Structure prediction request, 204 residues.
Amino acid sequence: MAEKPIYLASRSPRRRELLRQIGVAFELILLREMPRQPADIDETPQTDEVPDEYVLRITREKALAAVGIMRTRRLTVRPVLAADTTVVCDNEILGKPENAADATRMLGLLAGRMHRVLTAVAVANDDTVEARISESHVWFRALAPDEIRRYVVSGEPVDKAGAYAVQGRAAAFITRIEGSYSSIMGLPLAETAELLRGHGVVVP
Prediction:
């Protein structure tokens, strides 16, 4: 079996797809073995924490938690990659919806407006962690209540920051994008490649 150059601390299939797209091999380190287990990282925003600082903090904490798992399991030491995405509208951090009603609320807030998508990526190696943040702007057209209802019923908003997936059905809601498409999907590839190269990983 070929040697894997990094660990990926994420269960997101989109991040796996994006890493494969740029030819980076990886193994998974999951912070939770099962999706319904309590999270190792408390993702609650701190008092007066601005969205940019929030997403950077969470990403660094994920990367360092994965390094701890690497040590505990006595795995081969390799760079650990982690990422986190949040949607921001009216300076409100819109994470993953808690339920269908929460997803409906978020989509109603985004409809007919521009919002920010912030994705941070971090690479940790032993006790050191380096992070970058990517900001993109996304515009939604106006959405009728029935459109929002059908989208929520589809199940796609589940486990998605801001209750939508740019690469899925919600593409029909988007009229304009400024920034990195891969970042909106969940992993800014330019920043990721830069960080990995800095840790000695060959990015084709």
In short: Confidence is low (pLDDT under 50) at residues 34-38. The longest strand covers residues 128-140.
